[in-house]
Design goal:
This protein is α/β, with parallel strands linked by helices and about 350 residues long. It has 13 helices and 11 strands.
C-alpha cells in the first residue's frame, strides 16, 4: 500500500548532530559504550576493513536503550515528578523503557504483542518489577488490534507521555549515538550498514555519519518480507506493509514514520532487503566466528554487507566499512529452528 503523504523535510531539523551529542552526554555513564570488533576473516571475505558495533552487548541487549533513556531523561530535566510514560513495542524498546523507568523512577505502561518472543516479555516484566507503582505490561493481538490505537487510548486515559519506538526526535537522537561512538573509535568510514524497521536507528546514525564522516554512504537493510522502507526510499513516497511474516520481529513495523521518512530520504544513500535465510546465515556466522549471540533483526546489517559484497566483489575493496549489530535478544528455544534456515555455506 502507498500513502500519498509527501515527506516533510522541515522535520529533519528536529534531529541534528547537536541533538545527538547532547544525547551522548545524557547517556554517559549510564549506557554501555559497546566495543569495536574486527575479524580478519570478515575483512578477507568482504575485501575491506570492517568495524562491527555490537549493540547486542548494550544494556537490555539492544541499541534501544539509547533512545529510550535519552527521551525519558529529558522528561526529568526540570526536576519535577512525572506521571508516567507509555510505550508500545515487540520487545527491545519495551525492555529499554522498562529499565529506564526503574533507573529514573518514572512509572511506565508498555503495550506488547502476544506473539512477542517470550524472553523479551519476561525481561520487560522483570525490569518493571523495580519501577514505580502503576507500571505494567499490557498484551494485545497483533493480528486484530493496533498497538498505536491501544497505546493512544491508554495514554489519554491515564495522562501518560507516549514514547514511540522510533518516530520521536529524542529517541532518534539517542539511537544516533551508536554511530557517533563507532566513528569516534574507528575513524572515518566509507560505508555504514544499519538495520531498518521503523527507521529510528538508521535516521540517527545517518545524521551522525553525515556530520562526522561526510563521505560515508549509509546503507539500510530490512527483511525482504517487509521491504516497505526500501520501496519508500526508491519511490520517494511512503509505502507500508501489514504484519510482515519474518524472523526479524524487531523489524515488523508497518512503515517509516513522520520523522524518520524524511530523514532517511535526506541522509541515507541506499536501501536493500534480504531474505530470512540470509539473516539466519549472518546470525550463524556471528555466533561461530565472533562468539556473539545475535537476534535476527540484529543480524540484518551484517547480512546486507555479506549479500552486497558477494554480488559486487569489488564494491568495498580497500574500503572502511561499519556495521551496527543492533541486538541480541533471541529466544533460545527458537534458535535451532532459525539457524536451520541458514544456507550451509554461511
Amino acid at each position: 500500500m502507498t500513502t500519498p503523504t509527501a515527506p516533510d523535510f522541515s522535520l529533519c531539523d528536529a534531529v541534528t548532530i547537536d541533538h545527538i551529542r547532547a544525547a551522548a552526554s545524557r547517556l554517559a555513564g549510564v549506557a554501555t559504550r559497546t566495543p569495536l570488533l574486527t575479524s580478519r576473516e570478515l575483512d578477507a571475505r568482504v575485501g575491506a576493513s570492517v568495524f562491527l558495533k555490537p549493540e547486542c552487548l548494550q544494556r537490555v541487549g539492544a541499541f534501544k536503550f539509547r533512545g529510550a533513556y535519552n527521551a525519558m531523561r529529558k522528561l526529568t530535566e526540570p526536576g519535577l515528578g512525572h506521571p508516567g510514560v507509555l510505550a508500545y513495542s515487540s520487545g527491545n524498546h519495551a525492555q529499554a523503557i522498562a529499565l529506564s523507568a526503574s533507573i529514573l523512577r518514572i512509572p511506565a505502561v508498555i503495550v506488547m504483542p502476544a506473539d512477542a518472543p517470550r524472553i523479551k516479555v519476561a525481561q520487560t516484566r522483570a525490569y518493571l518489577a523495580d519501577a514505580p507503582a502503576g507500571s505494567e505490561v499490557i498484551v494485545y493481538d497483533r493480528a486484530t488490534q493496533s498497538r498505536e490505537e491501544i497505546g493512544g487510548r491508554i495514554a489519554a486515559e491515564r495522562a501518560l507521555t507516549l514514547i514511540p519506538p522510533y518516530d520521536h526526535p529524542d529517541v532518534i537522537a539517542g539511537q544516533g549515538t551508536a554511530a557517533l561512538e563507532l566513528i569516534e573509535d574507528a575513524g572515518s568510514l566509507d560505508s555504514l550498514f544499519v538495520c531498518v524497521g521503523g527507521g529510528g536507528l538508521i535516521s540517527g546514525c545517518a545524521v551522525a555519519a553525515a556530520a562526522t564522516s561526510p563521505d560515508c554512504r549509509v546503507i539500510g537493510v530490512e527483511p525482504a518480507a517487509g521491504d516497505d522502507a526500501t520501496r519508500s526510499f526508491r519511490t520517494k513516497s511512503l509505502h507500508s506493509v501489514k504484519n510482515p511474516i519474518t524472523i526479524c520481529d524487531g523489524a515488523q513495523t508497518s512503515s517509516l514514520g513522520r520523522y524518520t521518512f524524511p530523514l532517511v530520504l535526506k541522509h541515507v544513500s541506499d536501501m536493500m532487503a534480504v531474505p530470512d535465510a540470509t539473516v539466519a546465515g549472518a546470525m550463524r556466522w556471528a555466533m561461530d566466528r565472533l562468539k556473539l549471540v545475535v537476534e535476527p533483526t540484529g543480524a540484518l546489517a551484517l547480512a546486507g554487507l555479506l549479500v552486497r559484497s558477494a554480488a559486487q566483489p569489488s564494491a568495498f575493496r580497500g574500503a572502511r566499512v561499519g556495521v551496527i549489530i543492533s541486538g541480541g535478544n533471541v529466544d533460545l528455544e527458537s534458535l535451532p529452528g532459525i539457524l536451520a534456515m541458514a544456507p550451509r555455506q554461511s
